[in-house]
Amino acid sequence: MRTIFTTIAIAIASMAFVSAELKPVDTAEAVTFTIKNFGINTRGEIKGLKGTIKWDAANPAASVFNVTADAKTVNTGIEMRDNHLRKEEYLNVEKYPLISFASTSVTGNTIKGNLTIKGVTKEISFPFTVKPSNGGYLFEGSFDINRRDFGVGGGSVSLSNNLSVSLKVQAK
């Protein structure tokens, strides 16, 4: 009898990791970006990660990602530049405080969804990996966007149009 209860308990516990509703953990390396400024790679991060990740390890196509980041937290390590990035011409954080991503499909190791920055929504697609980590999952991926597609930075000639975003999101 004890063996049956133990087997049932293990089965129920393992099902929690098959299909789980997770919360992203807000860390310094969760959302990072790189863009050339005056020809020099400038690295930064955005924090305030929130939302839900409904991960189904048995059926990734049934998974759903719906997350936001706080645009006011943009950090390149230079406060004067960061304050400039928060202004209307760039992220306009007073009017658009959140950057969001909502998945529309997960196929194999590729996720497709809608990225919204500064009130502009564009569909993006990128490869990702997932592995069990610290009682949850670690999701990693990266993608490139054109900042002008989102109305960021206006006509700046010192800033590259291309921005690379890297994700390393722990979710529990």
Domains (count):
1
Q: Provide the helix percentage.
A: 10-25%
- What is the CATH topology classification name? Lipocalin
What is the radius of gyration computed over CA atoms, rounded to a whole number of angstroms? 19 Å
Mean pLDDT over all positions: 91
Topology:
Layout: H1 2-18, E1 19-22, E2 31-37, E3 40-45, E4 50-56, E5 64-70, H2 79-85, E6 98-107, E7 110-117, E8 120-133, E9 136-146, E10 159-171
Antiparallel strand pairs: 1-4, 2-3, 2-10, 4-5, 5-6, 6-7, 7-8, 8-9, 9-10
What this model shows, in words?
It comes from Panacibacter microcysteis. Residues 19-172 form the Lipid/polyisoprenoid-binding YceI-like domain. This is YceI family protein. Residues 1-20 form the signal peptide. InterPro entries: Lipid/polyisoprenoid-bd_YceI (IPR007372), TTHA0802/YceI-like_sf (IPR036761). There is one protein chain. By secondary structure, the chain is mainly beta. It has a single domain (20-171), classed as Lipid/polyisoprenoid-binding, YceI-like (Lipocalin, Beta Barrel). Helices cover 14% and strands 51% of the residues. It has 2 helices and 10 strands. The protein has helices at residues 2-18, 79-85, and strands spanning 19-22, 31-37, 40-45, 50-56, 64-70, 98-107, 110-117, 120-133, 136-146, 159-171. A 10-stranded antiparallel β-sheet has the order 1-4-5-6-7-8-9-10-2-3. Strand 8 and strand 9 form a beta hairpin. The longest helix is centred in the first third of the chain and has 17 residues, at 2-18. It is elongated. The chain starts with a helix and ends with a strand. The relative contact order is 0.18. Mean pLDDT is 91; it is low at 3-17.
